[in-house]
Design goal:
By secondary structure, the protein is of the alpha+beta class. The protein has 17 helices and 16 strands. The structure holds adenosine monophosphate (AMP).
Length: 448
């Protein structure tokens, strides 16, 4: 029989890598809490229409990458329906905002999510078909201040703080304005006119985009196309005074917080719903072409597109896979291996008759919040030492003598020292050993 494997573009995440993933999630939750965000969990699949209308029929995501199926009716009362695994989460959050009348509170809604997304892209390093995003949305009626450039700057400042807290080194923030609903058609007209005489000289993809979604031409990475694209008109020149002022205020607030950024005129991003501010955080190390860690922007008309009230907003999605990849590359070999050895003590019962009492000892120590692995009395002493050394910082020998006297033998693997320790002070002793040899990986995580 052929052995079954994870489907192309999906993968298993295993320890110790998952420790890094948890660290990223914990840090994100802590940072979001400081800015008043609450968690939202929306379904993994939605009505296909939500993405067709929300993300846009002409986007790569909707036109090529969605996992869509016809869900058959199973009862008279049901209708067949086209469903889609969510390729992103903003449309789902805005749908929930509308469905639950969150705008009626009159308050700004600040919602974050963490979860898998699905796109049928060509898999490569940093690009998967099931990938994970940590994202957030700030959305509300105009009266809640949702259109204010201060919200954009605050979101960007929060992301800079999150990257620093993880820590991720060497990130770069690119920002741009793609203009309002009024600016955009004006620019697209100018852009299309400028593309006409050169369209025969750009790549096939750009030729298609020139007809279907000219803005996306600015995204092209094909080296031969670059000199041509550089000569195209800039969107900035098509923005009206309001859009420019909005962007300038975002920049001013970022300057005030000393968050570094670069105004990149070509940053348009692949989703149709963006208006005004768009941004991307990039990371140079080891991610190759997939160097975008975070993408986001303002989507002032999205709610109306999917049948809701006016609800301007701004949001972002962090690619958690790429973030973990970048952090993993940042950690040295030594720090990585220390991720594996974060157990405080390995308890070795010396004989099967001592197994039950050894479990009771492990329970005692675990209740003291220590991390404990329990061996098995059937193991030879040599095997216990070998296993203990692979897993833990110290080994506690638990034989007949130790059980009777209440004095345990503890060996610290890093110093090689062996000591007799009374059971009453065992937890404290192990804690001290752990503090002394605190794994650099854990230090990095603890102090960040
Ligand atoms: P987007 O939703 O396309 O704006 O993407 C936001 C972020 O999600 C990107 O900057 C990436 O970090 C991440 N991302 C998007 N697509 C994928 C994918 N197929 N695999 C891994 N990460 C992805």
């Amino acid at each position: 029989m052929t052995t079954l494997k994870a489907v192309r573009g999906t993968r298993d995440l295993l320890p110790p890598e998952t420790k890094l993933w948890s660290h990223i999630e914990t840090t994100a939750r802590e940072v979001f809490a400081r800015y008043g965000f609450g968690e939202i969990r929306t379904p993994i699949f939605e009505d296909t229409q939500l993405f067709a209308r929300g993300v846009g029929e002409e986007t790569d995501i909707v036109s090529k990458e969605m996992y869509t199926w016809e869900d058959r009716a199973r009862a008279q009362s049901e209708k067949a329906q086209s469903l889609t695994l969510r390729p992103e989460n903003t449309a789902g959050v805005v749908r929930a905002y509308i469905e639950h009348g969150l705008g009626d509170t009159g308050l700004l809604q600040k919602l974050f999510y963490i979860g898998p997304q699905f796109r049928r892209e060509r898999p490569q390093k940093g690009r998967y078909r099931q990938f994970f995003q940590i994202g957030a949305e700030v959305i509300g009626p105009s009266s809640s201040g949702s259109e204010s450039p201060l919200r954009d700057a605050e979101v960007l400042e929060m992301l800079a703080s999150l990257l620093d807290a993880l820590p991720i080194k060497g990130w770069k923030l690119l920002i741009n304005s793609v203009g309002s609903k009024q600016d955009r058609p004006r620019y697209i007209e100018t852009l299309s006119a400028a593309l006409k005489p050169v369209v025969g000289r750009v790549c096939e993809d750009c030729q298609r985009r020139a007809a279907t979604n000219p803005l996306r031409v600015l995204d092209c990475k094909v080296p031969e196309d670059q000199p041509i694209i550089e000569t195209l008109p800039k969107i900035w020149d098509s923005l009206d005074a309001d859009s420019r002022a909005h962007f300038e205020q975002v920049c001013r607030a970022l300057d005030a917080c000393r968050v570094p950024y670069e105004h990149n005129h070509r940053l348009v991003r692949g989703l149709d719903y963006y208006t005004r501010t768009t941004f991307e955080f990039q990371h140079a190390i080891g991610l190759g072409a997939q160097n975008a860690l975070i993408g986001g922007g303002r989507y002032d008309g999205l709610s109306e597109l999917i049948g809701g009230p006016k609800a301007p907003g701004i949001g972002f999605a962090i690619g958690q896979d790429r973030l973990a990849l970048a952090m993993g590359l940042q950690l040295s070999e030594e720090k990585w291996s220390s991720f594996e050895k974060d157990i405080d003590a390995y308890i070795a019962p010396l004989g099967e008759a001592l197994n039950a009492q050894a479990l009771a000892l492990a329970r005692e120590l675990r209740r003291e919040r220590l991390r404990v692995e329990l061996g098995d009395g059937s193991f030879k002493l040599k095997k216990s030492f070998e296993t203990g050394n692979k897993l833990a910082r110290a080994i506690v020998l638990f034989g007949e003598d130790e059980a009777a006297s209440g004095i345990l033998t503890v060996k610290d693997f890093s110093s090689g020292e062996q000591q007799k320790v009374p059971r009453a002070s065992l937890a404290e002793h192990l804690r001290q050993l752990s503090d002394k040899s605190a794994a650099p990986g854990n230090q990095l995580l603890a102090t960040s």
